[in-house]
Amino acid sequence: MLHSPEGFEEFVAVASPRLLRTAFLLTRDIGHAEDLAGIVFALLPRIVQPEPAVPPRSLPEYQDGARLVAQAWADLPSTSTTLRFVPKSLDLVLFTHCETGRDGGLLLITLVVNGHPYTERNGCGGSRRVRDWGAFGIVVGQPSVITLTVEPQRTTAKGTFAVAIGEEVPVSEYSFPPRPQTLETFPAIQPEPAIVLRPDQAAPAAQREFTIEWPGINMMELRSNTPGRIRVLVDDVVVLDFSHWSYSVFTTWVQPSDWEKIDGLDLAKGQAVKITVIPERVTGDWDVTLTPR
Predict the structure, then answer these.
(1) Which domains are delineated in the chain?
(2) pTM > 0.90
(3) β-pair partners for 142
(4) In this predicted model, what pLDDT tens digit does every residue of 124-161 receive, in sequence order?
(5) CA-wise closest residue to 219 among 184, 267, 277, 258
(6) Which of 22, 47, 92, 280 is surrounded by the most beta carbons within 10 Å?
(7) Could you check whether the bond before residue 187 is cis, i.e. omega within 30 degrees of 0?
């Protein structure tokens, strides 16, 4: 788009009479003189203002405990995009993202990692972790390639799709989302727990220790409504190690049948047991409940 430089209109107003007289002396016709003067002004340099750049598309840098290190995008009607990256670790999280609008229908995705099939005609979106990325030919410090292919369920679908790879980061380095003004509250637990352990409300990230009478076979449940990490130890044995990345209520638990599988614990009903809760970067509410089964 062309724009006049500052002061150009004033220049035209001052110069027009002289230019018109000169043009008339050359053409001896007032109409031709006006046309010639208009052409001269049209050819004078202008300032070219570039159109605003389209902001690059990008998924949030921090998601699900990982920091994104590479991502690739494409638009329908294209049906594939290729992501290239060099991993610094094998603690990787794979993300997919699809947008087709309200009437665009679903996109089925196929992922191939370094030539190894990962998933075929599956749903799009969310994060994926693999216990052994080495099985897909991923080696620290060496280039890897992930190809995402999409299959629209409607031939007229319009939209965009992306694949990204992230590397897990510790809670201490993770960038949490903005804190909402109001935090979610915990729903009631049914049946009512026999034991409920809570934080110091003035210092929710402070470590706490409790001595309780073990209720026997039970379900232990840990809940939190802010991001952070919480570890629960029973008689100094870690039974839960839980990281949460958003300001929503999230729950994890130890099932009644899981207690006998935990090495180092030999618990009997009525026994005095020490429970230690170690929060990290937690800023809201949490609780640990034991409900007999």
Answers:
(1) 2-48 (no CATH), 62-169 (2.60.120), 195-292 (2.60.120)
(2) no
(3) none
(4) 999 999 999 999 999 999 999 999 999 988 766 689 99
(5) 258
(6) 92
(7) no
